[in-house]
Amino acid sequence: MAATALNGLKMATTSQAYMESKPVNDTRRLLADLCRQFYSLGWVSGTGGSITIKVHDDSIPKPEQLIVMSPSGVQKERMVPEDMYVLSPSGCILSTPSPKPYPNKPPKCSDCASLFMKAYLMRNAGAVIHSHGMESCIVTMIDPLSKEFRITHMEMIKGIQGHGYYDELVVPIIENTAHERELTDALAEAIEAYPKTTAVLVRNHGIYIWGDSWINAKTQAECYHYLFDAAIKLYQLGFDWSTPDHGPIRKYGGRTNMPVKAGSINSNHETGPLRRCIVLDIEGTTTPISFVTDVLFPFARDNVRRHLAATYETDETQDDIKLLRAQVQNDLEQGVVGAVPIPSDDAGKEEVIAALVANVEAMIKADRKITSLKQLQGHIWRTGFENNELKGVVFEDVPEALEKWHASGIKVYIYSSGSRLAQRLLFGYTNYGDLRKYLCGFFDTTVGNKRETKSYVEISESVGVDRPSEILFVTDIYQEAVAAKAAGLEVIISIRPGNGPLPDNHGFKTITCFSEI
Q1: What letter would DSSP give residue 255?
Q2: This prediction's pTM
Q3: Three-state secondary-structure class, residue 422
Q4: Which of 96, 102, 357, 472, by CA, is between 20 and 30 Å from 122?
């Protein structure tokens, strides 16, 4: 059992002495302060909503820390530290507040307790906030059929863990029930289905938000409410918050709040495939293979030593080195040609860099599609693009097609073996200007190998379509086309100058220009 020192004594965290200790009392006071603040924001009015925080104690691992939780059915703005419940790490009540005279209700632990525990156990959270903020309620009502809230290209997205300005934020929506505890299984399923999310919306009800600390949870809660409020206001103005330029909402089938589902019409006036999203490969599809092989790869190869030497002490480069060490160790065990051992840091910076350069050069020569290489290349290319040493190249039909699809309400994503950073750089610094305004998101090999079906299943579950067939995937690689088709996506193979040959009778539709789509 976890223990901590207090006045020189070791005591169990469940002991009465520890529950009256400074860490626990400080957490009780913090919770009461936050309840008053959140009440002023409209998040916990009418006795609704709740907050819970783990008792931070450096001597105790987070999974073993005690939990302080606000009670249910009480005026949140009038609570004092003594009104809080203290729970064990598994959720058992260890301390119950004393009853108050009429008209106060008898103390009762939060009805959200079982849901809070899911966030603690499944995400190792340090704090969880349940808000009844009006924004979080109304935003789920705009489209009663939607199972997700999606927004992109908003500055406050950067306040959500793991997201940047250009990323698409996706928040799952579960259906409300008559009793809070009945939401527990649905919340757990959403947490499991959306491994990147830090929040779950409850339709016509509110939202659950968690973070690794109370500061992180509070910061994200403020950002989520801001984004919901922005989406509602954009909707009232007739603009679509889910697209990069937040252009006018377009009508489709009587619904005005969702992007249009575009289908093609053939010469017999029959509707073709219904497409909500297009996912594009880069090399050989949007961009000549020669640009990648003759410009980007040599630039990374020729500058890897300079980059590592100039940035060696930075956290970013140390993370790159850590990934490369793990990859090279695996390569050595597998007998991969060109892999050489990387000495420990004790050997000195120059020795480590020399070994890294040798491995990276071998990886580039073999055109390996591995995350450790792609991440480092992206960081090297970033310097090149920002210093105007590099300029992204796309085929001349690409900008017009991206603009057309975007105007039609079709969401366009990129899926490449290059890192997401490298993708953003290529489309942000092209010979036709910044094309990122037409793109909704970027996928790389962190979702899986491009020749594996499960990667396309992951993408179809991430972009918010009802059926995988509503996604068109365009690539120049036959094996990628086969994998995407097996996942249910519509597939077209791109025929561009310099692309490799295709098997006879491959069975896929082909194009030589995006205008043919």
Answers
A1: B
A2: 0.58
A3: helix
A4: 96
Q: Are 453 and 486 in contact (CB under 8 A)?
A: yes
Nearest C-alpha neighbor of 421 from the set 471, 381, 469, 480? 381
| Distance between first and last Cα of the chain | 63
Q: Tell me the Ramachandran region of residue 63: left when phi exceeds 0, alpha when psi lies from -120 to 50, beta otherwise.
A: alpha
Question: Which tokens is 149 given?
Answer: 């809230």
Tokens at 381, concatenated: 């290319």
Measured distance CA(255)–CA(319) in Å, rounded: 46
**In this structure, are residues 488 and 469 in contact, taking their beta carbons and an 8 Å threshold?**
yes
Active-site residue list: 155
Distant-in-sequence, close-in-space partners of 436: CB < 8 Å, separation ≥ 6? 166, 244, 424, 427, 428
In the chain, count H helices and then E strands: 15, 19
Q: Cβ neighbours of residue 172 under 8 Å, at least 6 residues apart?
A: 147, 148, 190, 193, 194, 197, 200, 201
Lookup: tokens for 138: 């109304």
Q: What is the pLDDT along the chain (517 residues), one digit of tens a residue?
A: 343 433 333 345 667 788 888 999 999 999 999 999 999 999 999 999 999 999 998 888 889 999 999 998 889 999 999 999 999 999 999 999 988 888 888 888 988 999 999 999 999 999 999 999 999 999 999 988 889 999 999 999 999 998 888 888 999 999 999 999 999 999 999 999 898 899 999 999 999 999 999 999 999 999 999 999 999 999 999 888 888 888 787 544 444 444 433 344 343 434 445 678 999 999 999 999 999 889 998 998 999 999 999 999 999 999 999 999 999 999 999 999 999 999 999 999 999 999 999 999 999 888 888 889 989 998 999 999 999 999 999 999 999 999 999 888 899 999 998 889 889 999 999 989 999 999 999 999 889 999 999 999 999 988 878 889 999 999 999 999 999 999 999 999 999 999 999 998 999 999 999 999 9
Handedness of CA 158, 164, 166, 171 (dihedral sign): negative
CA gap 490, 471 in Å, rounded: 6
Q: Which among 454, 367, 459 is positioned nearest to 417, based on CA atoms?
A: 367
